Amino acid sequence: MDSSFLEPIKEYFKNLNLPFSTNISNVEMTVSSINITTDLCAMGDPIVMNMSVRLDTDFSDDLRNSSSEQYKKYKADLEKAFNDSYKCLPGFVSATVTGFRPGSVFVNYEVKAGAASFDQIASANKMVPQFLPAVYQLNPATFTTEITNQTNFTMSPVDIFEGDTVKLICEINSTSDNVTWYHFDQIISASFRYSVERKITRTISRTISILKIINITKEDYGSYSCTFTKSDLSHRLIYKATKPVKVFPLHITPNLNDTDVTCNSPEMQTNSPLLSCCIDRHLPSLTGDWKVNGAINITGVSSLSANCTEYKLNINESLCPPAKSGTVTTYTCELETGHGARHSQDIRVTYLRTAHVTISSSTNSSVSEGYAFNLTCESDVSNYDSISWKIQSGNSTRRVDCDTCIKNSRFPAMSVLTVKTATQDWSGTFICTFSQKHLESSANVTIEVISLPLKQNILINPIAASILCKVQQALECCINASTMEDYKVTFVVPGNAVQVGKKKTGNLFCYMYNYTETECNTQKEITAYCKFINRIGQEVNSERIRLNLIPDKEVSCSDSIGIGREEDTLVKRCQELNNPDYFTRGNKTYKCSNKSWKVERNDCLSVPISNLLTNAESLVNSPDAKATLPNYLAELKEKTEKEQNTINSSPANLGAIITILGMISSIPADAEKLTIQNFLSTVDFIVADSTAKAWEDLNKDKIIKSSLLLHSVENFSLRLQPVNNTIPLVFANTLQLQGIVVTENSMDYKKNFSSTENLTVNVLIGEAEIRTLTQNSTVVSVMYSKLGQILPQNESDYVNGLLITTTVSSNRSEKFNINMTFAKKNLSLKMPQCVFWNFTLNVHGGGWDTRGCRPTEVDEHVICSCNHLTSFSILMSPDKSSQVIFEDYITYIGLAISILSLVVCIIIESLVWKYVTNNTTSYMRHVCILNIAISLLIADIWFIVTASINDQNQQISRGICFVATFFIHLFYLCVFFWMLSLGLILFYRLVFILHNTSKTTQKAVAFCLGYGCPFVIAAITIAVTLPRNNYTRKDVCWLNWKDSKALLAFVIPALIIVAMNLFITAIVIIKILRPTIGDRSNRQERNSLFQIGKSVAILTPLLGLTWGFGLATVIKNSHRAFHILFALLNALQGLFILVFGTLWDKKIQEALLKRNSMSKWSSQQTKSTSLILVTPMLAMSYPFSRTFNNLCGKTGKYRVSSSEPSSSSSENTSKSYSLLN
């Protein structure tokens, strides 16, 4: 029981002075103090003091066992001593031993008594040794007392929240100099968050300790203890109290987290939203505040209740303009406990505005089938989430699911629906809806589609035919009889337009007109067509009917089919086999042969495939094409399988299926396994071995249908849309499809494919490339084991592996690296090429291309590393290495000789230049020879560069290949044009003997001709062909022949120059052989013929015989001899220039001898000014042509009669001679 209330009384009596007198010795006595004790034995419940003392004896394990004799003896003796010692304490009840613990022997006991002071307990402790036998060796200085229920422990505040500043207060009715605070078992030291304050009131013996915790956190929860300690030499008294502290988060619960408010809603303006924030308990000191943050500053009125703060919004439409619809304003409520804890909560309010939507049409309320129209839907709210289009027709409403026909923009907020070909499916009420969160704003317009046959659905008969003058020819236009519209139909023929009626023929309504041609003067082609006009005045024209007017006497074939001359063709529409009155799509071509019509080409479609084609045309123009596609693909697969035999024998039916696949591949498809299976199975049916003959015929067309099929599969895989974020694995006999959806966790793309023939191909795209793709994009690969063999190939190269297509749906970088490992099909084939199908080659017909791919051959596999995506395979050819090596040896050895010869030629010309250019004609001759050598040298060097590229891998340096081809083309042309310049100079000096032109003029003309013309030709060639990717060949760095005929830009100028130089050569020979006065002897004639032969033998190689053989190598299946001769002569051209252009020149020989001091320079003056020795363009001299010169001494001289002075004649003669020597 707490006796603190007695302390004032005790203190009063202690300070009381009681003076009184006594008769003893007349001494006055004063009572200075009175000791007052209080007897609490009868006052309330006793307290329990936990005490301990040490016995300085050895500890025995028996003291752990309460049933042992030693334990019982110790317990009895000690309890007797304790009871005798502590009975003097106020309110004493008992003293009980509770146990022993080692460390000598510590005795734990508890004393139940009233509240006792420190001194009272210390006095009682001193009495214990007197009642305890000495054998126990009790140490009187080791008494410890712990009192746990005499401390007043309080907290402020009672409810503690994170962030509060908390005070823990411990108070005892005693003085204590030492106070310690504990959190769990850890001593709390003073810091910036913890502070301890102690207050001692000695007058009333009270000690208060306050622990202050600033900004309390969850980590501060738990048990807190305060310990007051008072001690002397023999006794230590401890007051201890413990209290648990709970720290709660200041959890605010809003009535709304995120909410939408429609600003211009009347209901929202009259009943505006109430925002509130509450905590889970009542706090008298709770305060609240609201803050508004956002582009739309709509405020409100706040209020505070027991545990909530509320905010009533004042909605004002003027503060919420359409441009800001969808803007989020954040309302922040902040609550504070009054003790430092505070917390805030955001409530996000999205302010929306009902949009004003308008819709307009490019046409009136009616439009005809086959016509285009567009609808424009606009909104004043630009921050929309989505736009949807629906068509309501009767009781049904369909969603317009057409990615290609809807274009949306945000600024301005607009959606344009474009219908390129209207059909009945587009008839109805169009509803355009702008959605922003839950708010939808719509507008609608009604469009009626009026029936009008589509151009491709109007059957004409005949399509092409011959007619006679003044003989009627029946012309027919038919449409499907299911139409309900009554059209106005007019036949338009030359000079006339005639309205005709209809009649039903089988499944068609047919309109017929009998045409008669009256102008019979000339043969001519006449065109006619029919025009269909519906009730709103819109029209469509049929295809043209072509009529060829022929004379009656030339008619060879005449029957029910028609009339015509021999070899004439007639094209008519197709009839069903079992029902002639019913027609199907396609046409049949007849040819007049031996006075009867024979079917030349049958392009008629079977009825099922014709219906499939018509349905496909409707499907791609349908507003719900995506939803309808799966059912159509199931029907397509089923009917294609049933019509397999028809397809095998009919290129037209095969082509129709390819056309269908091409059309529907533009429709995005959900990646359902069955949908993909149906598409791939259809492809598998039409590439079966049984269709080989039909494919052979189809690939002869200008547009390669196998290329279209491959493109269709690529488009289909590119537009696949994942289902459940996956692309399924699908097999279809000769085809296989695999793919992935790119996610943030996607690593590399690695797929393995194998065919039924055990051929494999592995596809690998590295993680670095995958990381560049956008989230949720797809990577899809399709393997084909048959289609690669159907695509056109070169005669010498074969597809020797599987064909693989890989597509990526997202935008990607221009270069996208992919590696594929192909297993070889035929191990005997060599020279692997990694190729892709380039759809832009051959005027968009497509062809194999090697650009951007690098092959690596590893045993039975070829690894292709490419920097782009499309359809890949490997091309290989039979081993031709021996003949290639032989021709390579010829080329490289010859080029080495040629380059060395040209370098020597240039050096010699530079050494003897001043000796041999002493007149204009000689100067120009050597200018031409020097430039021929330089041009040929540069061309040969670039030739070596291209050869090295081809030997390594031309795709590595495609840019270098273009540059090399340009310079080879340029400088080979320069060689020819400089040869032309040389020939023209010779021609000029021989024909215009008396005409003189300055050296500067001649040089300017020669340089313009030698370099200007070749540059213009080469530049035009690359400018025209490079943008279309057909400037160079695929396998070598030289002008393309197959695709663009760019090689003609070299061949034509070269052949023209060769022809001109041969003409000049003929003039030279005529001049050489022109006789002097008198007839020649037979020997002279023989010598002249020999001279002609040598002239041709020398001039022709220099003037382009080499490239004559080069042209022969371009011809398909040309003999190998042409290749060897071309390689040999082309490589040795430099040697020809050195020998016939330089070393065979007498003046050069003499100049070289003079420079080397091997002989004296000798020159002979011309004895007669009229004597000119004319020799071929590259003159022959000693020692090679002594015999030739002897012959010319008899037959090669002629005199020039001149009336001018001899000096002039001598100068001209000298100039002419210098050109020839």
Automatic annotation (TrEMBL):
What are the transmembrane regions?
889-916, 928-949, 969-992, 1004-1026, 1046-1074, 1095-1115, 1121-1144
Question: What keywords sit in the KW lines?
Answer: Cell membrane, Disulfide bond, Glycoprotein, Membrane, Receptor, Signal, Transmembrane, Transmembrane helix
Q: Where is the SEA domain?
A: 43-167
Q: Where in this chain does the record put each Ig-like domain?
A: 140-227, 254-350, 355-446
A Pfam family assignment = 7tm_2
Q: Where is this region: Disordered?
A: 1199-1221
> Coiled-coil regions in this chain?
none
Which SUPFAM superfamilies does the entry mention? Immunoglobulin, SEA domain
Instruction: Give the compositionally biased regions (Low complexity).
Output: 1201-1221
Provide GO CC annotations from the record.
plasma membrane
**Subcellular locations according to the entry:** Cell membrane
- Where does the GAIN-B domain lie? 733-882
Membrane topology for this entry? Answer: Multi-pass membrane protein
Q: Where is the G-protein coupled receptors family 2 profile domain?
A: 887-1145
Residues in the signal sequence: none
The similarity annotation says: Belongs to the G-protein coupled receptor 2 family. Adhesion G-protein coupled receptor (ADGR) subfamily.
Name the UniProt record assigns to this protein: Adhesion G protein-coupled receptor F5
